[in-house]
Amino acid sequence: MNAEQVLQTIQNENISFIDFWFVDIFGELHNVGMPSYAIDKDSFVNGLEKLDASSIVGFKSVNHSDMILLPDPTSFKILPNDYDPGNRKNARIFCDLYDGSTNKESRFNRDSRGIAHKASQKLTEFGLTHTNWGPEIEFFVFDTINVYPSPYAATHSYGGSGYSIESKESPWAKGNVSTAIDLKEGYYPSQPKDTLEGFRKDVCDDLYNYFGIKIEAEHHEVATSGQCEINLVYDEMITMADNVIAVKNLVKVKAKRKNKVATFMPKPIFGDNASAMHTHQSLWNEKTNVMYEKDDEQAQMSQIGRYYVGGILNHASALCAITNPTTNSYKRLVPGFEAPVNVCWGLGNRSAAIRVPMYNRNQEKSKRIEYRVPDPTANIYLLESALLLAGLDGIKNKIDPGDPIEENVYKLSTEKKREYKIGSLPVSLKGALDSLGSDSNFLQKVFTKDFLDAYTEIKYKEYTSFAQTPTAWEVSMYADA
Q1: pLDDT tens for residues 229-250?
Q2: Residue 49 annotated in ligand binding
Q3: Fewer beta carbons below 10 Å: N end or C end of the chain?
Q4: What is the CATH number of domain 130-479?
Q5: CA 216 to chain centroid
Q6: 260 is in an annotated binding site
């Protein structure tokens, strides 16, 4: 839609309020609502003078805090009823963020959506028109999470702290013989064990009917206690990033309406599989998939595609600061839980960091790579941008990824990994941030130094804060040592 069509739809559909959406530098959704009668054509030209940027973490200081929200009419969508128990009809529009005016030069350099726009413009330098993206979004839906004795104690543990997860599917819940799922045994169960099939389908229905988001599949994932996955049909870069934000928010809203708790935290359950956000991607020049090469006997992967893979693998450690941005992310990236910990690629090989799906040959449309490292705490705009820039750096510098690994990487010996030149991902958020500090040149034409400095400073503080907090496990292991 353009602005005129949006305004006409607001009138025709009798929409009461417009929610203006934007994300902070970590991908958290923020919203300001305005009554529909307060919106006019000028709102889409000069923007909305509604943002105190000093109140958003990582944005602005209090003495330079006035910013403009510029609504993007192409992102207009009517919201499902779950968003308003008062039965008003609401719509949402994503906003771009500007300093002082809506001139192109005033685009805020810490606007994640703006970074993704800027990254996508780099494609023309490589003879490309667009990219397609298809994330697999995993998450948990619990009946409740209890923090003892209080949420405050979780970060100030000298008073004693702990937490428990309640789920009808958990093997530790009482009286749930028909719905109990053991650790690592939750892949594709049928009802009654899968207690969330109806919830996922409700989410998928609303995603399609209201947001126009096409779903490839939904299912229960490997972990117990309500681990879910929703796969989105591929779309272009900005559209897909907007869609991921909508999916994550809708899941949380619908869970809340059912008195449940949805979390995109990667590893909430010790000893069980964690949530990932495997990200499929392909490169296009108009209608030609430039990753596809029919005559390549090994993978039907073009040389450009291989260089793209090489770029991502070359920068994998630095990328972790963006693709796996929390301390909890590195509780997922450990051996034994189907998460990638080794820097290599393979054909249909789910033990590698990059997998080239090999379901069918001679299928140009579906030729792609799947990067298996990211988790759903990542800011999707930054994730797509960083992966794209790493891959383009591989094309520019002709970084060869070597031969694909055919063996189960999880079972390779240290000596064999050295022979294959397989590296390892960082084991902590600090390690990822350190890697980004020494390897960020491939990002800096899009991610400004100002943005990277602000991002890493906050993330280092996050790491230090959690590193100082004793856990119940540490106390039980070392208190009597």
Answers
A1: 999 999 999 999 999 999 999 9
A2: no
A3: C
A4: 3.30.590.10
A5: 17
A6: no
Tell me: is residue 315 an annotated ligand-binding position. Answer: no
Ligand-binding annotation for 293, yes or no, is: no
Cα distances (angstroms) measured from residue 432 to each of 141, 371, 391: 28, 17, 18
| Structure-block tokens of residue 198 | 């109806």
CATH code assigned to 3-108: 3.10.20.70
Nearest to 397 by CA among 304, 281, 300: 304
Instruction: Give me the mean pLDDT over the 105-112 stretch.
Output: 90
Tell me if 216 sits within 8 A of 231, measured CB to CB: yes
The tokens 């330098």 sit on which residue?
125
Could you tell me if 419 and 403 are in contact, meaning their C-beta atoms sit under 8 angstroms apart? no
Question: How many CA within 13 A on the CB side of residue 446?
Answer: 26
Query: Is residue 194 classed exposed, middle or buried when 0-12, 13-18 and 19+ CB atoms within 10 A define those classes?
Result: buried
**H-helix or E-strand spanning residue 18:** strand 17-23
Strands 345-347 and 354-356: parallel
How many alpha carbons lie under 13 Å from residue 69 in its C-beta half-sphere? 23
- And the tokens for 380? 């999707």
Q: So which residues are the catalytic ones? A: 52, 136, 138, 221, 229, 278, 350, 370, 372
Beta strands in 99-199 (DSSP E): 130-142, 144-148, 162-166
In tens, the pLDDT along 43-65 reads: 999 999 888 888 999 898 766 77
Q: How far apart are CA 96 and CA 368, in angstroms?
A: 30
